[in-house]
Fold this protein.
Amino acid sequence: MKIVVFSDIHGSKSGADKISSVVSQEKPNKVVVCGDYFGGWSDSRECVYRALSNLDCVLYLVKGNNDYPSDKYYLPCEMEDYAVMHHFGRVLFFTHGDCYNKWSIPPVLRENDAIVYGHTHCASVTKHKGLFCINVGSIGLPRDGCPSYVVLDEQGIWQKSADGKLMYHLPWQE
């Protein structure tokens, strides 16, 4: 099982193009986008729609703080408030990050589970209070200077730059 996670496209054409390129290279089973598809500083709805529609894998869309009910007409599937999956021997909780994050943990998570989010536009992967806390950064408008995404697989968490270079790896087992 391989899951690729993006966040914070914000209507960026280059961000949408990077999603297509990354998914083509990584060949995941699932893609999760942790919100903020449009809104903000750029608005290439058609590019975002095309990039997400053409993915050859299962797609989960999580709602961000800049996403509105009318955005559903520009997305290939429904947005959910969060997504919960059971993989790699743990619960994975995907959210945008404005409500739940490293400092505000949802009650369904236990030790060694993972919370995956964006919102801050700055990538980080840490273990905090027994949980894997994964901020995927932003593929469209990074505040840390590097468009990024995350790969989750049996070996652990792989934080990568949009061009596929490894930024950080944290194994599930230490």
The chain has two helices and twelve strands. Residues 102 and 154 are 22 Å apart (CA to CA). The first strand starts at residue 3 and ends at 6. The radius of gyration is 14 Å.
